[in-house]
Amino acid sequence: MKDNPFSLWVYLSQSPLLWLTVTLLVYATTDAVSLATRRHPLANPVLHAMWIIGAFLLATGTSYTTYFAGAQFVHFLLGPATVALAVPLYENRDRVVSSIVPMLVALVAGSVTAVVSVVLLAELAGLPRDVVLSLAPKSVTAGVAMGIAESLHADPSLAAVAVILTGIMGAIIVTPLMNRTGVTDFRARGFAAGLAAHGIGTARAFQVDEIAGVFSGIAMSLNALVTSFLVPLVVTLLVR
Q1: What whole-number distance in Å separates Cα of residue 141 and Cα of residue 75?
Q2: Tell me, what's the pLDDT at 222?
Q3: Nearest by Cα to 219 from 135, 143, 105, 78
């Protein structure tokens, strides 16, 4: 393969590793572009990697099942990556403990706002009940949102799409929004990003500042717990 690079392509094209390779190369490229633009919000690597790979799958007529068979190793690494968030959390434990009260207040306010606002807007728009239920857990990680959607007999796939779009939008607007509103405390900026935009927002927060990333990871974790209890209550009270 070293002497003949084409043989590498022949090998990959006949193996599920092709899609793992494509995923890693596309993300590495989009991340390099993001770095070259000094992490400009609109150069978000998740956003651009997603549409590039999607276009590639459409152009080659490749099904998602075939793609996932090769790229599932990346999916597997999400678990260890989430657990790894505990390392910076431990290193900054004194900051976290000193902010526990405002964090809990922000957690309740943010969780309620995230669920109630989307449910009310969806109801006002006259969306079908199963769509409203699928949108309700949009601000938590995909795995948790899909579990909540299943328990409500909604569409887990639609819930996952809503989660991804919410995360990307949150990652794009969080920095300009915080700069425009004058929020300079990276604990608050990070907590808001993780609460509204889960893992994708947390990745963005770590790009901006480590303290913001730590508090974003905390918000992401706590919001998953609160939202799993809150969504059924809000649905009972607000959804027709």
Answers
A1: 13
A2: 93
A3: 105
